[in-house]
Design goal:
By secondary structure, the chain is of the alpha/beta class. It folds into two domains: 90 residues, no CATH class; 170 residues, Rossmann fold (3-Layer(aba) Sandwich), CATH 3.40.50.300. Helix content is 48%, strand content 9%. It has a five-stranded parallel sheet, sandwiched between helices. Strands 2-3 form a two-stranded antiparallel ribbon.
Length: 294
């Protein structure tokens, strides 16, 4: 059977059992698109910024599910931890995911745990700060990535101390920071004008049913191990996908994953209009409708 509609490495998966193909469908896949590629280029420029100058920072802003975390994860994967010829540890990008209600003490603990440093979580924040900074210097951390930065806005009274800690960390270690979050991340930075002045915002706009979206659908279809081509870019099918998924890339990927699994399980081996309509699916902005129905 011809598999010209798939990338060669994906076509090889067609011979695998259905359960393996389904697992393949559910795995994270990177598909570049204009806004993401531009953001990655900006992050590379930031990482290569001279250490003898005061570092600039970037705030990557997008609505929930619109690709900001995927960009951060891909950037970290592209710059993995390694070692110099002398065997010295190098961490090009240290990623920290901010918890739902962070404070300064928890922030330092997260850094220590990520770097594999045992410590007592009950220690004072000042003590953990010294440990974390020493560990980051030892690990040659070149850049700090703070995902879910919007959670800083939910820190209450701890917000000011946490923002000051982040600002001082960047100053003392001379490393740039990329923060990623929803529009609430801007609210967090508004509470520390000095820190905000060092950030440049990059917005990931909501998607439209345009050539860029169709290009994404075509690229993603090549990553789904289905025996038959779905032709997702055809007008009626693309319109239905966009209508069901909404204007975020995360929901589009989630829908295509679920549809591809259904195509394998049902034996249709392609995503069709009838298959999409048969899915139990609620858009991320459709929860109010669900609530009214019960």
């Amino acid at each position: 059977m011809s598999a010209e509609h798939l990338l060669p490495e994906v076509a090889e998966v067609l011979d695998e059992p259905n359960k393996d193909r389904i697992e393949f469908c559910r795995q994270d896949r990177w598909v570049g698109y204009t806004a993401a590629i531009k953001a990655l280029d900006e992050l590379d420029d930031l990482r290569n910024f001279p250490k003898n100058l005061r570092p600039n920072n970037i705030l990557l802003v997008a609505r929930s599910g619109n690709g900001k975390s995927s960009i951060i994860d891909y950037f970290v994967k592209r710059h993995p931890m390694g070692a110099t010829e002398e065997g010295k540890l190098v961490v090009p990008v240290l990623k920290v995911e901010m918890p739902s209600k962070p404070d300064e003490s928890e922030f330092w603990s997260l850094i220590l745990w990520i770097l594999g440093i045992s410590h007592r979580e009950g220690d004072r924040a000042a003590h953990k700060k010294r440990q974390a900074k020493s560990a980051m210097v030892y690990a040659n951390v070149q850049m700090l990535a703070l995902d879910e930065f919007n959670n800083v806005a939910e820190a209450g009274r701890a917000t000011a101390d946490l923002l000051a800690a982040i600002r001082n960390l960047s100053n003392e270690l001379r490393i740039p920071i990329v923060a990623a979050g929803t529009e609430k991340a801007i609210n967090a930075l508004n509470l520390d004008p000095q820190l905000k002045s060092r950030f440049e915002p990059i917005a990931l706009p909501k998607w439209s049913l345009d050539k860029e979206y169709l290009s994404f659908l075509a690229s993603y279809e090549q990553l789904l191990p289905l025996a038959k081509p779905s032709k997702l870019i055809e007008r009626e099918l693309a319109t239905t996908v966009f209508s069901m998924a909404g204007n975020t890339i995360g929901q589009t990927v989630k829908l295509l994953r679920r549809a591809s699994v259904a195509a394998i399980e049902s034996g249709t081996e392609q995503i069709t209009l009838d298959l999409l309509k048969s899915l139990e699916w609620t858009r991320s902005d459709g929860w109010d409708t669900v609530a009214r129905s019960v």
